[in-house]
Amino acid sequence: MVVLDPEEAADRLLRDLRSTSEGLSTREAERRLLQYGPNTLRHQRVRRWPVDLARQFTHPLALLLWLAAGLLLVVGSSVVATAVVLIIVLNAAFSFVQELQAERAVEELAKFLPQRATVERDGMMTEVDATQLVPGDIMLIREGDRIAADVRLLDGAVGVDMSALTGESVPVVRSAAMADANVPLLSAHELVFSGSSCTSGEARGVAFATGMATEIGRIAALSERVKADQSPLEHQVRRVAWLIAAVSVMLALSFIPVATLAAHLTLINSLVFAAGLLAGMVPEGLLPVITLALAVAVRQLAGRGALVKRLSAVETLGSTDVICTDKTGTLTENRMVPVAAWVPGRRVELDDRAFAASAATTSTAVRSLAGAAASCNNASLHDGGDPTGDPTEIAILMAAQALGADPNHRWRDAQRRCQFHFDPQLKLMSTVDQVPDQSSVVHTKGAPEAVLSRCSRVLDTGGHPATLSAAGRGEVEAAVNAFAAEGLRVLAFASRELTVNEPQPQRRTEAERDLCFTGLIALLDPPRAGVTDSVAQCRTAGIRIIMITGDHPLTARAIAQRVGITGEHPTVVTGDQFERLSEAQLAALIQDNPEVIFARASPEAKLHIAEALRDGGHVVAMTGDGVNDAPALRCANIGVAMGKSGTDVAREAATMVLVDDNFSTIVTAVHAGRRIYDNVRKFIVFIFAHATPETVPFLVFAIGGGLIPLPITIMQLLAFDVGSETLPALSLSREPAEPGIMARPPRPHKEGVIRAPMLARAWLFLGAIVAALQMGGFFYVLVKAGWHPGAPVNGDAPLHHAYQQATTMAFLGMMAGQVGTAFAVRTQRASLRSVGVFTNRYLLAAIAAEIALAALFVYAPPMQSLLGTVPLPASDLLLLPAYPVIVWGADEILRYLLRKWAP
Ligand code: ATP
C-alpha cells in the first residue's frame, strides 16, 4: 500500500489516492467504504465505571447514611445497619443508571441529525451522509460546514476554526494555493481537518483520511463526553436536600436525650432510633429522580423535533419569556415562489407564464434581468427532479426561466469567472461572468437598498444604460415598497460590463461598484401552517416574540402582522437605525416597545439584542442559522439552530436544534419545559410529604414519656423509605400538562424550585393528614385490644401481639396515605378531574407495585421477622382503602378553595 503524504503535490496525491479531480464513482466509493470502514470515530468509552460508581457511594448524602450505618454497627444493631447499607446501595445503583440514561439520551440526539457532506460522485455533486465519506472523495467545503474528513484542498480558500484540534479558536486561512511541504500536518496551509469547521469561503478538496485515520481520530481524548453541567434546578435541590439533612441530624440528635431521659429508653436503643430516623429522612432519592425526569424530557422533545443538547436546557425553556426569531424558514415555509418581476416602468406577473414569456421577448430590460438572475445564482433546477440550492435562489432561477433565460447550471458554471459569496452583512452576492458577445460582466443581486446604493446607472425602458437620477431611485424604491408591503421578499439585480482593459476584480468592493440597476424579482414565502396558533399561545403564555430578520422592514412587518406577532403599528428598527443606538437606548427601546421588529438586522445586532435582553433579566431563546449567528446563539439562554437550513457551526453553538426549522417547535419545547418543571415540583412535594409521617411517631413516643410505645419500628420506617418513594416519584415526572399551562406568565427566572407554599402543603397539610391517619390506626388497634397508656407491650406482655398489629397498621397507614398524596400532588391547583384520574398509567403501575410490596412486607415470613410485622384482621385492613381517599379528598377541597379565593 502506498504511504500517503498529504503535503505532496496535488496531482501526485490524487494519483496515490487513485482518484481524479472529478471524484470517485459510486461503485468505487462503495468498495472503499468496505475497505476503510465508515467515517466515524469510535467513541472510546471514557466512562470509568468503577470511578463513576464509586462517586455514587461517596456523595455527601450517602456519606451521611454511611455514618448512620457505622453508628448502628458500633452499637450492635447489625440488622438495621444492613438495611441502611441496602438503601445506600439501591440508591447508588439507581443514580448510576439514571446518569447513564441521561448521557445516552443526549448522545442519541446525534441520530436525529446526521452530519452531511457534499461530494462529487459519478461526476455530479451530491450530498451524502458524512459516515459514507472515503479517502479519494472530492469534497466541497462551504461556509458553515463542519469538515468531516481530513482534506487536501485542490482549489479555493476557506477560513477554518480548528479549535477542536488545536484549542485555538481564532479562524485560520487554508488555501489550495498555499501549499507547504515539510511542516507539521496541522500547520500545513493546504490541509483542513475533520472536526474543524469552515467559517468563511468555499473550497474543493480531496479527502485523504477518514474515520479513525484522521488527525482527530488520533487524538487520545476524542470522546466528547456530554456536558454534565449541573442545572440550576439540581443545584437548588441539592441545597435544600442538605438543609433537610441538617434538620434530620438535629432532630435525630435531639431525639437521643428525649428518648433516654423522658421515655426511659436505653442509650443504645435511642441511638439506633436516631440513626434510623436520620436514614429515613435524608431525601437521597430526589436528585436522581430529577436527572431522570430531565432525560425523559430530552427524549420526548427529540421525538417532537426539538433536539436539546443539555439536560439543564429543559428547565431554562420553562422560564423562557422572550423568543427572538428570524423570519425566513422559521415563521415562513422557506419554499419560495416567484410572484412578479419589475423593470423600470413595468411590472411582469410571473404566475402568468405566457405573459412573462411575452414580456421577455419584447423587452431588453426584462431579458437583462432574466440573464442576471440566471447567472448570479448557485441553485440548479433538475428536469424531473427536485431543485437543489438555497430556496431564495431556486425561486429566482425559476423566475429567470419564466422570463426566458436558460436555467442550465452547466452553462452558467462554464461562463463564471469568479464569485463573491452572499454576505449576510452586506446582503449582496456577485459573480463575474464571461457572457457571450460581451466582455466579462459583474452580476450582482441582493437586498434592494444594498444594490441600489452601489448603482450609478439604470437600464431604462428601452434597455439602455442611463444615469440613475434621484427620481429614478425614488421609482425603484416605490416599487420595492409596494412589493414588500404585500409581504413579498424582494431582490434587486444589477450588472456592470467590465471594460476591455479592466482586470478581473479581486475584491468585492472593486466588483460591486458603479453598477447599472436592472430590475427586481418578488418572491412569496407564505407563513407556515400552525405558526399563527403558536404565536397566539405565546401571547397567552406571556412570552414576547421579537422578530429579527435580514429582510426588508415592510416585508418583515407584513409577515409579523399576518402571523399575529404584532398589531397594526409595530416599532420597526432597521439595520442603519440599529447601528446608531447606544446600549442604553437599545435597552430602553426593548423595554418600552412591546411590539418591536428588527429588520435588515445583522448577526451582530442579534448578539447585542440578546445581551440587552439578558441584562434586562429576561430569559431569551434566539434562533439563528449562519456562521455569524454563533455568538448570539451562545449568548442567548437558549440558542436555537435550524436542523434543515442551518449551518453545522450554528448547530454546534446552539443549545437546541429544530429538526424541522419550525417556530411552532420552539413553543412546543417551552410547553414541555414548563410541564417538566411543574412535574419536578410535584414529586418534590410528594417526596417531602414523607417527612411528617416519618417523624410524628417518634415525636409521639418521645412526648409520651414512656407511656406510649413507639408506633412504628425502625425497620418499618426504612422499608417505607425504600418501598414508597422512588417509583411514584418517577411516575409523577410523566404527568401530562395541567390545563392552562400556557395561559399563565413564565416562571420568574430567579424563583426557586422549592417554594414555601409547597413545603407547607407537603409537611403541614398532606404529611400531617397522613400522620394523623397513621397514628389514628395505631391507637385504634391498640385501644381495641385493651391497651391503656403505660400498659407494657414488650416481648412477653399479653399486649405484645396487639402492639405488633398496631405498628403494622401504622406502617400500612403510611403507605396507604402516600398513595393518596401521590394522587393529590398530580395537580398544583387544578382539580384531578380536569387532568383525568387514570391518565398517568405509570403512576397506576407504581401504586400497584407499592401495594404488592406492602403485601410482601406484611405477609412474607422473612419480612415479618425482619420488620416485626404481623397479618391484620380483615376489619382493620378494610379501613385502609379509605386513607388515600381522605388524603386526596382533603387536598382536592383545599385546591378548590384556593381556586375560588385566589383565582
Ligand atoms: P431571516 O433573517 O428572517 O432568515 P432573511 O433570509 O431575509 O431573513 P438573510 O438570509 O440574512 O435574512 O438575508 C438578508 C437579505 O439578503 C434578504 O432579505 C435578501 O434581500 C438578501 N439575500 C438573501 N439571500 C440572498 C442571496 N442568495 N443572494 C443575494 N442576496 C440575498
Explain briefly what this protein structure is:
This protein has 903 residues and is α/β, with parallel strands linked by helices. Among the domains are: 306-332 and 528-661, HAD superfamily/HAD-like (Rossmann fold); 339-524, Calcium-transporting ATPase, cytoplasmic domain N, CATH 3.40.1110.10; 670-901, Calcium-transporting ATPase, transmembrane domain, CATH 1.20.1110.
Question: Could you explain the architecture of this structure?
Answer:
The protein has 903 residues and is an alpha/beta fold. Among the domains are: 161 residues, 3-Layer(aba) Sandwich (Rossmann fold), CATH 3.40.50.1000; 186 residues, Calcium-transporting ATPase, cytoplasmic domain N, CATH 3.40.1110; 232 residues, Calcium-transporting ATPase, transmembrane domain, CATH 1.20.1110. Helices cover 50% and strands 15% of the residues. It contains 36 helices and 24 strands. Strands 10, 11, 12, 13, 14, 15, 16, 17 and 18 form a nine-stranded mixed beta sheet that branches. The protein has an eight-stranded mixed beta sheet with strand order 8-24-23-22-9-19-21-20, with helices on both faces. Strands 1, 2, 3, 4, 5, 6 and 7 form a seven-stranded antiparallel beta sheet that branches. Helix 4 packs antiparallel against helix 5 and helix 29 runs antiparallel to helix 33. The longest helix is centred in the first third of the chain and has 35 residues. It is elongated. The protein starts with 9 loop residues before the first helix and ends with a helix. About 1% of the residues have low confidence. The site of adenosine-5'-triphosphate has 17 residues, from helix 14 and strand 14. Adenosine-5'-triphosphate binds next to helix 14 and strand 14.
